What does this fold into?
Amino acid sequence: MNSNTVAKLSSPPMLEEIWIRVDAENKAEVARVAAKYRLEFPASAEGVFEDQDSVCLNITHMMPQGQEFRRETIVIAVSDKVVVTLEPKGHFAPFDKALARFKRHPGLVQSSYSIMRTLLQAMNDAAAETIEMISQALEAMNDQIGVITSGLDSSGREIGVSDISDTMIELNEKEELISRCLECQLSLARAARYLRMEINGSDSELKNMVETLLSDIDGVKQHASFEHEKVRYLQQSVMTSLNVKQNQIVKVFTIITAVFLPPTLVATFYGMNFAVMPELTWEHGFTATIIQTLLAALLPLLYIKKKGWLR
It folds into this structure.
């Protein structure tokens, strides 16, 4: 295995001549390949470069890494003779699967454009798997969100604001991930459209395959959009539960204030150090004060209960 170029183990003979896999971090090898095949790679992360002989595109892709995902930028340059891919250090899993597909179906290795179509198809298949993983994660969260909306967990403990906040943070992360997947599908669709323009008009079979690829890319994009809407719905449900919980807390403190404020005022009156306070010499003054204090607390409570604010 060449240390500069990604290995092509047991590739079909013609494939090695057409598909050149390069480690994007090896600047010297990138420069050598660019000079050899007269290619110019786009400088910006979202750039596209075209000249009279080739087209070079950047395609973003979300790669699973354990329980997390990272965004990778794949550069594909295609001309009539070759297709060059600048890949992350190591192996880019979708292209490894494409290589296995070429081994099983050597007929896919017809031209640089047919190879590029298979590479884009492999990236789209990987994107579909990523969206499916996100969908399964959201399904797993449904029970958690159901517990939040019910207000009690399986042990009977009341769900707190911190529990709701943790779920909301997790949903926000899922929404951001799906948004990035949608951006990746847009860049993949752009690459497929450029490929369609490059194909010779006489190659109707390949054109039809590219049209199918575009439909597949759009299908994955629609699936991602559906999952995005699902996340937004779940976020709205959690936010509603959070608002209800916060309103309950405010209501509790409001009731406490309404019940204890009048007795506090009564106590305040008798805490004043006036020189003349006739009630202090009254035989039943203490009892009357206690009754007055209880009435001052009960009357607001009865009013609140009558209005239904305790529900």
Summary: The chain is about 65% helix and 10% strand. The mean pLDDT is 82.
